Every structure is written in C-alpha cells, then in structure tokens.
Amino acid sequence: MSDFTVGQIIAERSVHLTRESLVRYAGASNDFNPIHYNDDVAAAVGLPGVLAHGMLTMGIAVGIVSDALGDPGLIAEFGVKFTRPVVVDAMTGADIHVRAEVGAVDDDAARVDLTVTFADTSVLGKAQVRVRVR
What we know:
The protein is α+β, with helices and mostly antiparallel strands and 134 residues long. It has three helices and five strands. Strands 1-3-4-5-2 form a five-stranded antiparallel sheet.
C-alpha cells in the first residue's frame, strides 16, 4: 500500500482472546504476573477480573496494521497510552476491535490513527502508527 488519503480506513478487524491466549503470550513474553491468569489474585488487588497483557493488546493493534500494509518494514513508529483494561472472562473470553484510519499524510509518511475497543470502550489512547510512504 503506497497511496494514503486522510480518512481512509486501511484495516478493521476483531480479535478474540481466551485465557489460553494469555497463557501463550505469558510464555512468549516471560510475563507471568498472576493478574493475567488467576482470578483470585486479580480480585485481591482490586481488578475486575483477569486482564490481558497491555503489550498483547498493543501488539494485536499494530499487527493488524502490519498485515494490511503487507510489509512490517513500513512501520516507522508506534505509540499508545494504555487507558482501560481488557478483562478476559474464563468462559467467554474477550473481543478486541481495531480500526485503523489514516489521520494525516505528508511526503514521506502517513499517520494511522487506531481505535482499539473492548466492550465498546476505548482501551488504547493516542494509538498512532507512523507508516513510511513508498
């Protein structure tokens, strides 16, 4: 993808997370904080339930952009602010929805603004990807 226009939706997708997803990510990232797999620990520290890793949520979001571009090397920068948790229910899991829209374009790059939601609530703020223009 080399032609970007402001307002263009370059990707939109939902990803379903399960507790198994969290265990697999914990193994890959070496982040075994029990709030990501143990309901009792999550409740004891005042959380609404077991939470998805923030970096997992962030990785899913940028991965959707990378897939749409067809070349992960085009991603120059990526940043987010973690604003709300993604609670992954033991039985039903959690669905994360990502929408990637071009917010600005200049001669050498495009800014892609991400809207990342769980249960109709934004979970990442100021989620932006700077993409090199070929």
